[in-house]
Amino acid sequence: MNAVTKKLEDIQHYLQTQLGDQLTAIKYEFNELSLEVPVEHWLEVAQFLHQDASLACQQLIDLCGVDYLSFGDAEWDVTTASRSGFSRAFHPIEADPLFEFAQPTQPPALNSQRYAVVVHLLSIEHNFRLRMRTWATNNDFPVVPSLVQIWAVANWYEREAFDMFGILFARHPDLRRILTDYGFVGHPFRKDFPLIGQVEMRYDSELKRVVYQPVSLEPRVLVPRVIRQP
Fold this sequence. Notes:
With 230 residues, the chain is an alpha/beta fold. The chain has helices at residues 3-19, 42-51, 154-165; strands spanning 25-29, 32-36, 59-67, 115-123, 128-135, 143-145, 168-170, 199-204, 209-214. The radius of gyration is 22 Å and the shape is globular.
């Protein structure tokens, strides 16, 4: 057993002792330590990781959203084309003139909780990293407490997760889009978002302003197809 493995195993035991029921699970695999945290204990556990002298996880390296819709489904089925995975741009989404887009039929989620937030932390003082994940309990209105009050750098990361996945962060000081345009419709990293998008923008020389219109890209099949001789 090397020194890194011993250190992470000691940290795993310490977290199990200190946090107890505040963790759903704690795993040490592939030389990585991962915590599963119920959303109601998200802030409490984060505060402990940040403030505890034995851990001192004072640097948040990354925060991202994850959409587990159809998690576990085979993406490389080359016999059919569907609206999910690589082929979800095959059929364009019809839109009325008011841009009230019809929603695509969603495949059943293999996980009852669809949206998760994953955070990677670094302890510079003790030289180790760990990961923690929580799940939004409402798939239609995903909300997770903001970590900005603990790690200020989480501000833009949470705005990105909101913009791309539609995950709301409670008590975020300035939760608004950060990558897409002000008039953008939907959240492009959601698994059911069409690859061709929903609207496009252009400058109208007659109106002398930027206008939005239904996307004009031709539908295309993105499923890789392999033809094998019998």
